[in-house]
Amino acid sequence: MEHPIFEGARLVTSADGTRIYTDAAGNPSKPSIVFIHGYSLSSIVYDNLFSNPSWREKLFLVRLDMRGHGKSDKPEQESAWTQTKFAEDFDAVVRAYQLRKPLVAAWSCGGAMVADILAFHSSISLAGIVYITPIPYLGFFQHIATDYVLDVIPKLTQKTDVNTFQIASRDFIQGLVSPKHYLNRVAFPQRLQQACLGDVMSQPRTCAAYTLQRSQDEFGLMRAGREGLPMLLINGKDDMLLKSQPLSKLFEKWKNMEVVNMDTGHMPWWEAPQAFNDVVLGWIAKVLGGEMKRMQLEAHL
């Protein structure tokens, strides 16, 4: 039985009324994967994956703008920035698209949202985690932040000097890729740079501050690792923003983990797209091998 290719964006309402922007592409009968973006940006960073037939044919792709980012609502009261709220946002997306045990691909600061999810759900609620140059939980940021990003972030979150904010915004965007890729129009297209800059510029500074300063508990995340939740960790050897070495120590007791160090900066799926696709889709095929074969058989009945 053939299933139609799904495409479309929608606003999903979370438990507290916050509207979360979402977008989906691919075949809903396939295994699902939810993409979470990074600090001050939006799900537009995944445009090249959502337009790639290799991804759309194998998986049902869903992406969201985290609360306070992109096209989602941007609440500025502190009570809207709790771990519960982020978990409820994810739950609303899962319900809206009728996802069953999805994979989660989380990049950079978006990695912290996985800790929110696992604070309220057991490891069996997810099929696996694809961590892309991640911050696994916010309390760990200081251990992996480079001097470059520690210099930029205070300038981004301050509210008094517009010129300093604008310069820091450009510096932050430049740091998203390896220096050797910054001027490469394929690895870091100008339209993507401008879109990211627009996301940073349009986000309220209060939301930018809460994104990194909100309270988090990592217990559920680390428990999932001990229980064997599959995880693929992708690091960038030339990452300007985050250091990968401390992650090895943090995840040393994670039972089911694969680590790949790529010759990129902070955005490997743009800087080395074919290598990234091979690594991630290959890992997903291993993790979901039986499930994907079952779905392929059903599709031909």
Automatic annotation (TrEMBL):
Domain (AB hydrolase-1) ranges: 31-273
GO cellular component: membrane
Protein origin, superkingdom: Eukaryota
Protein name (record): AB hydrolase-1 domain-containing protein
Lineage: Eukaryota, Fungi, Dikarya, Basidiomycota, Agaricomycotina
